[in-house]
Every structure is written in structure tokens, then in C-alpha cells.
Design a protein that fits this description.
mainly beta, six-stranded parallel β-barrel, 59% strand, Toastrack_DUF4097, DUF4097 domain-containing protein, 2 helices, 2 domains
């Protein structure tokens, strides 16, 4: 090794060792290595981590009546629709001080509220970190509405937080939640479109003409609800409808169990890739035309079911088919899981 190269390596090692010692001393003293870039410019990671910002707060405030809602939230907050005690509209919130200042108004019969997320980013000696301190209290939005409100269009987009809605009708209801659960109670809509990336969905006493529900990872629990048409996709999670009414449904479940306890069914198509499926019907089975197939799983039917139930002696595949010629049709496939049909007289 050349003398110059050797000196450079020795000197570099000394500087590196000194850097490690100084960094360790700073950490033991309560500091954090690195810097962060904020709206105030470059600050040390330690000062950014210790910074505390108060939430943006609005006490319960009366607002003008409206027939439309446009709520867009990039920051974290739970959203609640609550009944108004005096028939007036009210708004209340406590939103993260680490996000942008919330903006809201009532214009053209539409209530709008938005808050943009402001991510504090920094580069650290031991890898990137995009964390910010916790908010001083749990952020929330509370919208108080009169009983049995009728809205034209309701649109809600939330980045992180739960959404709870109850007691109104909307011509069009659109909901997108990135991280958070959705609870709907006594909600009716001509058209509803729900998309949840990570969170559960619960419906109770709801009624929709056309419903489109998409879940990436979460359970769906519906009870005492109805839909004229239902398009359901659940990529990872269980899906259950109990004591409900659906006329036409197209259902796709990738990983999870499916339970449909429904009446008024005329058309059902779909598949369950990995999970068990249970259909509880309240009309006699001879009113339906069935075409069921499992690749790896059993098909279970009532003892008095007519039709052809066949199995493959060389595989786990089973199929069930009827020739009733009925206008009511059920076609369903399970890749890996059982299919069970039950009949319960109402």
C-alpha cells in the first residue's frame, strides 16, 4: 500500500471514529442526529421533534343550512355526523396543528371543509425519517345536522381517521377512506360508492338503490339493510349481510369468508378465491337456477335440494347445477373453500 493511501485511510478512520463518538454523546445527551426541512427552513432534528403545536380548534358554531357536502381531509381526524337538538346546522372541530390551516365555508348550498397535510421531512445520519410529533389531542370533526336531512350530493375523502354517519338521505353518497373504519346507521341513498383501503365497514338499517363497495383490507358487517343492486369487492377480509334484502348482487372476495343472509334475491354472481361461503335464502330453492363450482372445497345443500351435485374422484372439485328455468339465478365459484346453501322460511 502506498504511504499516501495509508495516511488517507488512517486519517479517515480517525474522523469516522470521532464522528461516531460525538454522535453517541449527542444521543445520550437527549439529542437526535440529522436535520429537518420545515416551513421555517432547516432546523435540527432535536428541535423539530420537541416542537409542540396546538390543534386548530373551532367550538360548536352555528352555520348556514346546506344541501351538499364536500369534505376533503389529508390529515388525521375522526369525522362524526351527529343529530342536532334544535334543528340547526353546527360545526365543531379540533384538527392537527401539524397540518395546514383548515378552510371551510357554506357557499351555493354546499358545505366544504378541507385540511391539507404538511409533512415535516428530514434526512438523518442513520436513515430517513418522516415522523412528526403526536398531536396534543385526538383530532376530530363533528357536524351536527337536523333529523332526517335530505342532501343532493355528499362527498367525503379522508386520509386517516374513522367516519361515522347516521340519519340522513343523499341522492349521491361518495366515501373514500385511506386508513380508517366506516360506520353507517340509518343512511339511505340513491347511489352510494364506498372505497376503503385499510379499515372495517359497518352498516345497520341502511337502504340504497345502487351500492358499490370496495374494501382492500377490512371486514364488512351489514345488518337490516337493503340494496336494489350491489357490487361488492373485498380483497382481504370477511363480508357479512344479515337479515338484509338485495335484488341483484355481484360479489368478489379474494381472501375471507362470505355470509349472505338475504331475501328478495333475483340475481347473484361472483367468486370467493380463498374462504368459505354461506348463502341463507328465504325463498324455496326450486325458485332458483343454481350453477355452483368449487375447485378445492365442498358444496353443502339442504337434504331436499333438487338438481345435480357432482364431484370429481380425481380432485377436490365439486359442482351443483339445476334446470329449474327460473328467472332467479345464482352463479358462484369458490377456488379454495366451501359453499353452503341454507333455506330459512320467513
Amino acid at each position: 500500500m502506498k504511504p499516501v493511501t495509508k495516511k488517507i485511510l488512517i486519517l479517515s478512520s480517525c474522523f469516522m471514529g470521532a464522528g461516531v463518538i460525538l454522535t453517541a454523546a449527542g444521543i445520550f445527551a437527549g439529542g437526535r442526529p440529522g436535520f429537518m426541512f420545515t416551513e421555517e427552513g432547516f432546523v435540527s432534528a432535536s428541535s423539530a421533534a420537541s416542537e409542540t403545536r396546538e390543534n386548530y380548534r373551532l367550538e360548536k358554531t352555528a352555520i348556514d343550512p346546506f344541501t351538499g357536502i364536500d369534505l376533503r381531509l389529508d390529515s388525521r381526524a375522526d369525522i362524526e355526523f351527529l343529530p342536532s337538538e334544535d334543528g340547526q346546522f353546527y360545526l365543531e372541530y379540533s384538527l392537527s396543528g401539524y397540518a395546514g390551516r383548515p378552510e371551510w365555508n357554506v357557499s351555493g348550498d354546499t358545505f366544504t371543509l378541507s385540511q391539507e397535510e404538511q409533512v415535516v421531512q428530514g434526512f438523518y445520519l442513520f436513515g430517513p425519517d418522516f415522523s412528526i410529533p403526536s398531536a396534543p389531542s385526538s383530532p376530530y370533526i363533528r357536524l351536527y345536522i337536523p333529523e332526517n336531512c335530505v342532501f343532493s350530493e355528499v362527498g367525503l375523502t379522508s386520509g386517516y381517521g374513522d367516519l361515522s354517519m347516521a340519519g340522513f338521505h343523499a341522492e349521491t353518497l361518495s366515501i373514500y377512506l385511506d386508513f380508517g373504519s366506516l360506520t353507517l346507521e340509518n343512511i339511505s341513498a340513491d347511489t352510494i360508492s364506498c372505497s376503503l383501503d385499510y379499515g372495517d365497514m359497518e352498516m345497520n338499517g341502511c337502504s340504497f338503490t345502487d351500492a358499490d363497495v370496495q374494501l382492500s383490507a377490512g371486514d364488512l358487517d351489514a345488518a337490516d339493510s337493503s340494496a336494489d343492486t350491489l357490487n361488492l369487492v373485498n380483497e382481504y377480509g370477511d363480508s357479512s349481510f344479515e337479515n338484509s334484502s338485495i335484488r341483484a348482487a355481484d360479489v368478489t372476495v379474494e381472501f375471507g369468508d362470505l355470509t349472505l343472509d338475504v331475501s328478495g334475491l333475483e340475481t347473484l354472481t361472483g367468486e370467493n378465491e380463498y374462504g368459505d361461503t354461506l348463502f341463507t335464502l328465504h325463498e324455496p330453492l326450486d325458485m332458483f337456477s343454481f350453477l355452483l363450482n368449487t375447485e378445492f372445497g365442498a358444496i353443502r345443500l339442504p337434504d331436499d335440494a333438487s338438481g345435480r351435485l357432482t364431484s370429481n374422484e380425481y380432485s377436490d372439485e365439486m359442482s351443483y347445477e339445476t334446470d329449474s328455468g327460473s328467472r332467479k339465478q345464482i352463479e358462484f365459484t369458490a377456488a379454495d373453500g366451501d359453499i353452503e346453501i341454507q333455506y330459512e322460511r320467513q
